[in-house]
Design brief:
The structure is a single chain. The longest helix has 11 residues, at about 5-15. It is built from two helices and three strands. The chain has helices at about 5-15, 45-55; strands at about 20-25, 30-40, 70-75. The protein has a three-stranded mixed sheet with strand order 1-2-3. It has one domain (about 5-75): GMP Synthetase, Chain A, domain 3. By secondary structure, it is an alpha+beta fold.
Length: about 80
């Protein structure tokens, strides 16, 4: 089952309420998205730590072959 971009944003926003979040549907199929998440809480974290935090916010939606979200190209950073 495909996810909508706003569903992905809502999951991320629940953990990062003040983040700047941009979700892009890459293939138009509801399964392949890109997300950019810019949040002050990422300051001092390396990229892997930042991305793990975002994946945790997705609450298992990408887990395994039966996950609702097939692919997410993720860019994370702290605000400049």
């Amino acid at each position: 089952m495909a996810m909508q971009a706003n569903d992905i944003e809502n999951l991320i926003r629940a953990s990062f309420p003040d983040a700047k979040i941009t979700i892009t549907d890459l293939a138009g199929d509801g399964n392949h998205y890109a997300a950019e998440v810019i949040d002050a809480s990422f300051k001092g974290l390396n990229r892997v730590q930042q991305q793990r935090a975002v994946y945790a916010a997705l609450k298992g939606k990408m887990d395994g072959p039966s996950g609702e979200l097939h692919a997410l190209a993720l860019t994370t950073k702290a605000p400049a």
